[in-house]
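Blinded run. Sample ID left blank on purpose so nobody reads anything into the name before looking at the predicted structure. Input follows.
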Amino acid sequence: MTELYFSPISQHSRRVVSLLEEVGIPYVAKPVDMMKGEYLSEAFLAINPNHQVPTLIDGDITLHESHAILRYLCTKHELNDWYPSELAQRAQVEQWLDWTQCRMSPAVVDIVFNSVFLGEKGDKKAIERGFKSLEEISQILDNALTGKEFITGSKPTIADLALASNIFHLGLAKAIPNHAHIQAWFARMSELKGYQKSLPNM
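Blinded prediction complete.
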């Protein structure tokens, strides 16, 4: 049985939970209490020496990175709608997965980690840097969503799940972009049952 070590307060965890729940892949949920520091425990470090979530264990395979986990699950279960096999379509999904991780995630971390999780101890310069970056990337994302229901076309993919997990995270800091196309897309993503089941109890 597939096992997933995760935390609902981790945007990287939520994108994997969203896929598992949306397509109905059976798995054993292994919550990791981040607030109590369980990710630094000896037991968890034996599973993931990077002390991060999520981690997927599937038989003899152990995977740590959320996008690698998403790709693995789609390939194993032949989820071609979520991770297209056609070259040009897959390239678009790959592009937005990388964009999410390389361009969007640093801004999200700067804003949310420092303003929500660290509170008064947060790095004010990092928050300022995050919001400045968010202005640019929000416009890029909004432009990319023009005339499309989802980031690569008419159906959601794992790239949308990755993006949506970050947009929700920005909501913790009341920083969700108010651009029209992002708002409409995020509303569509929020209707997915898998996405809904990934959310933390706030």
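Unblinding after everyone has recorded impressions. The longest strand covers residues 3-6.
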